[in-house]
Amino acid sequence: MIDFLKLPSPCYVLDETLLDRNLALIDRVRRESGAEIIVALKACAMWSIFPELARHSDGATASSAAEARLVYEEFGSPAHTYAPVYTDHNIDEILRCSSHITFNSVAQFERFGQRALINGLSCGLRINPEYSPVETDLYNPCVAGSRLGVTAGQLAAQGGLPEGIEGLHFHVLCESRPEHLRLALEAVELRFGEYLDRVKWLNMGGGHLMTHVDYDCDDLIDLLRAFKERHPNLRLILEPGSAFTWRTGYLVSTVEDIVENGGVRTAMLDVSFACHMPDCLEMPYKPAIVGARDPEPGEKGWRMGGTSCLAGDFYGDWVFDHELKVGERIVFEDMIHYTMVKTTMFNGVHHPSIVIVHRDGRVQIVREFGYEDFKTRMS
Fold first, then answer.
1. What is the pLDDT of residues 3-49, one digit of tens each?
2. Contacts of residue 316, Cβ cutoff 8 Å, sequence gap at least 6
3. 204 Cβ partners below 8 Å, 6+ apart?
4. Are strands 249-261 and 329-333 parallel, antiparallel or unpaired?
5. Distance CA 272, CA 109 (A)
6. Per-residue pLDDT tens for 94-132?
7. CATH superfamily name and code, 34-245
8. How many whole angstroms separate alpha carbon 50 and alpha carbon 242?
9. What's the rounded Cα separation, in Å, for the pair 253 and 193?
10. Taking the CA of residue 138 as centre, how many other CA atoms within 13 Å lie in the half-sphere pointing to its CB?
């Protein structure tokens, strides 16, 4: 049991024992399905745990030159890189640090593909199968008019698959289940089936939340095996992000004030939803808090207020078994994926510290932030 009172506030806390559970399950899927599973840095770029992740994956995927360099230098292998746009400014660094590169359009491949091929990279093309189960448009890559990927009609109109493309890549899922991947693969086979036997690899993107308690990994394994039987020439690649660090840690905060207005009680915290948990406001979704529950109809709860001046920097409500007081710790659950990578310094609000609680109970403060970090970002 972690003693949150002994940790700095605010801080992100990764619990290695929780991480172990996820990595064991991911290893099982890799072993039994025959598919490669690589880590998507877009969900968690906590490079202090890269040595651990590298032992339980087949590499890592990057979405920028900075991520590709971090994979190359700290993960110990070149990156599988995809970005919506490459530029003359970043392409050389990306090529230096990558083994695979996926282009968002035929035009981008025509612009940079020969440089990639000369440097020995395996080139892919992102496709849009025109199916996604994602209901929130902000996260839906197949929304009407999407800028992400090439549709089958567009590819045919441009003369089909360009010479030099060795792989296809689609990314249409978000915290999804095997049945959604099944529908996505059906759409890929329907619209792009003629190309599947002409390429060497198929990257199925991220969004495979295989470490969720309700995810059917047996179904996923069977699905991947069956697809492999139909297309035995293909290397199958999955690049989940959240699955690796799903429910592996916390965001620790402290109640610094209590404000009541119009019958609404707000615990003012030393963290910010806008700065530190932006997906709560964007998706939106309500995180769990240790020791709290959702209110019953008509029950009065507590709103959590963020530390920035944004009027909407709050979320609620939660019910506790006691009255909250100043100095009390509020611990948000499942705060490792898509938190640190999205944390901002809006308002000059500093980042929470980063902490690992090791298997033997030892607490390691990996990083603390202060004024110089803010000043460097703003210069």
1. 999 999 999 999 999 999 999 999 999 999 999 999 999 999 999 99
2. 266, 301, 302, 303, 304
3. 170, 171, 181, 184, 185, 236, 237, 238, 239
4. antiparallel
5. 41
6. 999 999 999 999 999 999 999 999 999 999 999 999 999
7. Alanine racemase (3.20.20.10)
8. 15
9. 50
10. 6
* 3-state SS, residue 73: helix
Who contacts 286 (Cβ-Cβ below 8 Å, separation ≥6)? 280, 294, 315
pTM for this prediction: 0.94
Asked whether the beta carbons of 280 and 288 are under 8 A apart, the reply is no
CATH pick for 4-12+249-335+343-378 out of 2.40.37.10, 3.30.450.20, 3.40.50.2300, 3.50.50.60? 2.40.37.10
Phi first, then psi: what are they for 106, rounded to 5°? -65, -35
SS (H, E, C) 347-358: HHCCCCEEEEEC
